[in-house]
Structure formats: C-alpha cells, structure tokens
Amino acid sequence: MTSAAITEISDEAAYTAAVQTALDAASAYYGDGTSTLDDDDYDRLVRGIAAYEAEHPELVRADSPTGKVAGGAVVGDVPHTVPMLSLDNVFGAEELATWAAGLERRLDGPVERWSVEPKLDGLAISARYVDGRLVQLVTRGDGTAGEDVSHGIGSVLGLPRELAEPVTVEIRGEILMTNAQFTDATEKRVAAGGTPFANPRSAAAGSLRAQDRPYSVEMTFFGYGALLLPGEAGFGAGTTGDLAERLPELAHSEVMALVESWGVQTTSGTPVAASTADALEAVQARVEQIAEARADLEFGIDGIVVKADNAADQRRAGFSSRAPRWAIAYKLPAAEKITKLVGVEWNVGRTGIIAPRAVLEPVEVDGVTITYATLHNAADIARRGLMLGDSVTVYRAGDVIPRVEAPVVQLRTGEETAIEIPEVCPRCGDAIDSSQERWRCVRGRACHAVASIRYAVGRDTLDIEGLGEKIIDQLVDAGHVTDFADLFTLEREQLLGLERMGETSTTNLLAAIEAAKAKPLNKVFCALGVRGTGRSMSRRIARHFATMDAIRAADAEAFTEVDGIGPEKAPVIVAELTDLAPLVDKLVAAGLTMTEPGALAPGTEEETEDEGPALPLAGMTVVVTGAMTGALAELSRNEMNELIERAGGKSSSSVSARTSLLVAGEKAGSKKAKAEGLGVPVATPEEFADRVRDLL
Q1: Do domains 444-516 and 521-590 have the same CATH topology?
Q2: What is residue 603's predicted lDDT score, i.e. its pLDDT?
Q3: End-to-end CA gap in the chain
Q4: CATH topology of domain 521-590
Q5: What is the CATH number of domain 444-516?
Q6: 3-state SS of 89-136?
Q7: Given pLDDT bands bounded at 50, 70 and 90, which one contains residue 601?
Q8: Which of 51, 432, 581, 630 is deepest in the core (most CB within 10 A)?
Q9: Cα separations (Å) of 313 from 252, 316, 318, 495?
Q10: With bands split at pLDDT 50, 70 and 90, how would you rate the model's confidence at 18?
C-alpha cells in the first residue's frame, strides 16, 4: 500500500473542467449510486484539484469539492442533529504514522487507545429511534442535512424496527448489499426491464431511494456509531434511564458494544470486526489483517477506519469543517475500475465447456494490471446487457479472478456493437449443447484432447514425469493417442519417432508411464476429469466406494451419501461416468489400479475386535494456508490435503464457523484473520506435523 497518485492539472481551464467533472461524478455517486468515474479515479481527480488549489489559492472556486462532505454535490432537506461528516484519507503505513503523530501533538500526549474497523463501501445512514422504535432513516447528504429515505424501513437486515431497550438515540452506519443481495437485486431489476447495477454500492443507493418499483430487494446495515437524539429536536422526550449521562462519556468501543446489545448489527461477527489497540504498531498489524481478509468478505470495504477510541481524546481533537480530526480512513487499492470491453474470446476447456473471456483495455485493479476477465457464459452476457466497446466495471479483490460486473450505460456513445455469440463450437466446429447455462461442445473431451491429457498426467493426478506439453502435442498430432488411456499402450518406436526423444528419455518416460499404473483409485478418478469433482472430491469418492467397479455401479442416490455431493450434483456425476465408460474400460484393460488403499467398499465391514486408536484428525475439518515449513516444507497443497484426509479429517479451502483447525504457514493472510475472528484454533506447520507425525 503506497501513497496514492493524483490527476495532474496543468492550467485554469483544466482546473475548471476538473471541478465540474468531480461535481457531476459526486452528484451521481451520492444520488442514485451511478457515476462516470470509479472511486479511484474520483479520488485521484480530487487530489489533483487540491494540489492545484494549493499552488493557486487565488483561483479556488466556491463550488470546489475539496474540504466538503460528499464533494459539495449533495443537498438534503432533513437537518442532522449533529453534522454527519466525511473522513480524511491516508494511503499507506507512513502516511498513517504521520497522521497519528499529528493527532498526538494536537492532544499534547499519546492517544489512550485506538479503534480499528473496516470502512464499509455503502451508503452512510442515520437511523433515528424514539423510545426504541425506528421512526426515520436519513442519508448523509451534505453533512448538515440529508434525504429522508424512511420508506426503506423494513427492507434492511441488521436494522431492527425495535431496539431491545426503549431508548431515544440515533444509530449511524452503512447500508450496503452483500454479494448475494447484489446478485438478487440485479436479476430482479433486469427482469423488470431495467439495466444491470454497476456494483453493490450503486445497487444499494438506487434501491434505497426508489419508492415505485415492481419488485423488492433486501439490503444490509452495519452500525458504526451512536449519539443521543435531543428531545427538543422533535423526536420525543429524550432517552430513558441514565443513557443521557453515560453515552457521551463512553469510549467508541463501549458505545458499539451497547449498540450491539440493543440488537443492531455491527461488524463484530465478521472477519473484519472492529477492535482496539494500544500502540500504532498493533493498529498497522490489524489494518493489514483487514486488508488481507477483504477478498473473502461477502460485502465490500474500501479501507480501514482508525479512530481515537477514548471520548475525551475525541473531544480534545475536535473537528475540521469536513471531518473529525480524531479519525482517518486508510484507503485500500481500488478493487473495481472502469475500463473498455474491446473483445470477447470463446475458449473450450478440457471437458468441452465453452467459456467466454472479456478482453479489456489494460487497467490496474487492486495493484494488478488486468487485461482479461471472466464472463461466465452466454446467458450472463445477455443478462448484463454487455456490448463491445462498452465502458465496464471490472472487479477484483485479493487473489479473486477478475470479473466484468456490468456496463456503465451512461457512458455509451452509440458506437457499441453486439457481442457475437458462437453458433458452433469455436474449437472444432461441431454443434453446441446449449441445454444448460454453461454451454458445451457436443464432442465433450474429444474436442480438446490435448487439454484433457495434460490434466490427467499432471502432478496432482497421475504425475507422469517427463511427459511435457510438447510431447503430448506431438502424440496427439501424430494420432498415437486420442485420450490418456492410450498412453499406456504406447510403443517404444512411437516415442522414438518424436522430436527430442532419444533412447534414454524414451526409456525413462515408458518407466514413468508404467509406474503410473499403480496410482491409487483417487488419482485415476481425478484424472478422468469428471464434471463437478476435483482432487478433494475424488479422494472422498474413492474412499467411499473403494473400487472403480463400485463407483460405476452406483446410482445418483448412492453418490449423495458422499460428503459434499447433493441431489443436483449426483446425477451429473452419474451421467459423466456413463459417457466416460469407454475410457474407463481402456484403463482397466491397460492394467491400472482401480482400488483405494485402506478403503472399504460400501456394505462391507472389517472384522476386528480392536479397532485401534482413533485417527488424529477424526471428524475435523482442516484448512491450510500460507507456506509450510519444517517437516511439511516439501508437501504441495494437494499433498497436505491428502495428509489431512489420511489422518481422518476433511480438507477444505475456506474458513468458516464449521472449520475445526487452520494450519497457518508463513505469510498466512486473510484466512488466518478470518479464523481468529471466528475463534477457530490455529496451528503452526510444526504443531500440525507433531499431531500427524505417524502418518508422515
């Protein structure tokens, strides 16, 4: 995280244009949530305006967005009892330290305690309660007055109509949409004849303001503050009990605990829960944890808010015209940007799945230059109303695959063209099976034999050393192999006829192919590339059925007995195995191992009086993250998952409340932060190795 760039402004004409562009973008952003600029470009523009004004103070325009809440573009008609201000920004650890030092100079002493919480990417809202009942919702507006959106009461999760206590207070927080709510809202809007929402924030802003629409959507609220509603403001006779005396003196963290006790949702149950720290080093560590957790969240954040937690420190620091001096927003790299969709490529995967890929004007998102992004399928393109030449919102967080979210329809010029949807398989020219949303070539794996074979012989499947891509290409081109079963009937002369294959390399490759015949059932099943399965699922299936004969004889109901296979996936697996029957027959004829060591076929029991000690991970769900060290240093992630399952556990790739243990190696990131937030036990690689020592 480094200091942010700015938009360079060269002269007064450029400055005037920049101010107008910023005002227009802010007006749209704080209006219906749409904007011609993404957050990063808007921030760069405003910083450029501020830099120009610092050099030319005599030219500063009255309508400049600098130093104003909401960029000065929003006007409300409901006065706030206390100004609802914005936050100033920093863009890295060095800037955070400089800001903190300035605050402590202002306080003439150290900050007693810091509060660290996520900066939620939604719509700031004031929720007013009288005697515990929700009576009004007001947007931030220009900070002094906002818009009444009380018609939204009842559509927001986490914001109860009644508090657990009959208090008269104002809860401040953020209304946003989770990923699932955003998908639902977009589908409903498109079905009603509208255009797709550009992002979750615009969906929340637009949906909250809309009063006349033929569908309903759900949103989510997270509280981040509370203050008293004075009786003279027309909201009742004040508060009950001693709240009026206590609330102004409570630390921010204490206020939020009280808010949560009333039944209002806060971030406490999430991996980015608000926390406190006594030293700036601990603040920075928590900032990094929240940043790393960003990719796994079900809702958007665009930074981390750092505050002086103590009420006395806040009062002494005071406010500027735009923001509190005791709080700062530590901005994260943009997770979404606007760029141009310049093309669509249609690729065919190893199982025959036809997948479109967006070709973009290169754009930097979350610190990475993005040129391609996923488009899922043809139906997804149609739902989003995408066209070639569109300005599109591209989203990426952490290590998530970039995706095109939606077109920015207000930037269309009329020169956009329809995306051409293929009528035949773009690889082989055969027909397309379009009976499901994910289209597939009717030839299936035969359409892309090279990809299927490469997958089958990889390290995590049959692991045939020496069989590289160039050799596979030559074997397929020469007609020696049409699937990976043909590898086991290759003759020496066929290999010697290939480029760069001499006597020694041929001998070694034939030996590696022969050794692959002894691979356990889970490796052979994984090599088949059955849709809906992968390495972990292949291990579960192999352990459950024990033999290939039992797998082939199983019906859909039998497959649902395997952990992780439901009634929708089971018939797909059965159908796939039917299609793969000729390939499996060839593998049997070639002499491959078709059993899983140590597994018992369904309906059989091991006759023994002494079952022996329980496996060390029996009944546990284990997640591995980071680089392994010590005795585990040489194990791949797949080998770690195999070790977990040999020890009786279930390997998983994501942390949840059901996770029993996280093995956190070097540079463990968001998964460790999420585990700690959920109270999941965390072990080092060395501690885990001790636990499974007998199986290493």
Answers
A1: yes
A2: 63
A3: 39
A4: DNA polymerase; domain 1 (1.10.150)
A5: 1.10.150.20
A6: EECCHHHHHHHHHHHHHHHCCCCCCEEEEEEECCEEEEEEEECCEEEE
A7: low
A8: 432
A9: 11, 5, 9, 77
A10: confident
| DSSP conformational letter for 265 | -
- The domain 12-74 is placed in CATH, from the list 1.10.287, 1.10.10, 3.30.70, 3.40.50, at 1.10.287
CATH class of 79-331: alpha beta
Say which residue the tokens 């289209």 belong to.
Answer: 439
- Token readout for 594 is 């078709």
> How far is the C-alpha of 441 from the C-alpha of 542, rounded, in Å?
28
Task: Tokens for 225, please give them.
Answer: 């503050």
468: left (phi over 0), alpha (psi -120 to 50) or beta: beta
Q: Where are the beta strands (DSSP E) in 9-113?
A: 78-79, 89-90
Q: What is the pLDDT of residues 525-567, one digit of tens each?
A: 999 989 878 888 998 899 899 999 999 999 999 999 998 898 8
CATH code for the domain defined by 621-695: 3.40.50.10190
Which three-class secondary structure string do you get for 389-427? Answer: CCEEEEECCCCCCCEEEEECHHHCCCCCEECCCCCCCCC
H-helix segments, 160-228: 179-191, 200-209
Residues in Cβ contact with 114 at an 8 Å cutoff, skipping those fewer than 6 apart: 276, 277, 278, 280, 282, 283, 306, 307, 308, 309
The whole-angstrom separation of Cα 492 and Cα 498 is 11
- The rounded distance, in Å, linking the Cα atoms of 510 and 496 is 11
Three-class SS of residue 302?
strand
pLDDT of residue 610: 45
Rounded distance between C-alpha atoms, residue 253 and residue 282, angstroms: 16
Cα–chain center distance at 386: 22
Maximum C-alpha span of the chain: 96
For position 444, what pLDDT does the model report?
Answer: 79
Q: From CA 616, how far away is CA 605, in angstroms rounded?
A: 22
Count helices and strands (H / E) in the chain. 23, 25
Give the domain ranges of the chain: 12-74, 79-331, 336-433, 444-516, 521-590, 621-695
- Tell me if residue 119 is catalytic: yes
pLDDT digits (tens, 9 = 90+) for 149-206: 999 898 999 999 999 999 999 999 999 999 899 989 988 888 888 878 878 888 888 8
Q: Which two tokens stand for residue 648?
A: 């009786």
Question: Exposed, middle or buried by CB within 10 Å (0-12, 13-18, 19+), for 612?
Answer: exposed
Written as six digits, the tokens of 611 are: 């079952």
Spatial contact of 170 and 164, defined as CB atoms under 8 Å apart:
no
What token pair was written down for 229? 């509603």
* Confidence band for 17, pLDDT divided at 50, 70 and 90: confident
Per residue in 602-653, pLDDT (tens digit) is 666 544 444 445 789 988 999 999 989 999 998 888 889 889 988 888 888 7
Phi/psi of residue 300, nearest 5 degrees: -90, 140
- If you classify domain 336-433 with CATH, what class do you get? mainly beta
Per annotation, catalytic residue among 68, 119, 671, 672:
119
Look up residue 223 and give its two tokens: 């509280």
Nearest to 323 by CA among 71, 152, 638, 109: 71
Alpha helices, DSSP H, located in 602-653: 637-646
Residue 525's CB is within 10 A of a number of other CB atoms, namely 25
Provide CB contacts within 8 A for 590, sequence distance 6+. 485, 488, 489, 517
Mean residue pLDDT of the chain comes to: 87
Q: Token digits for 250?
A: 């409570």
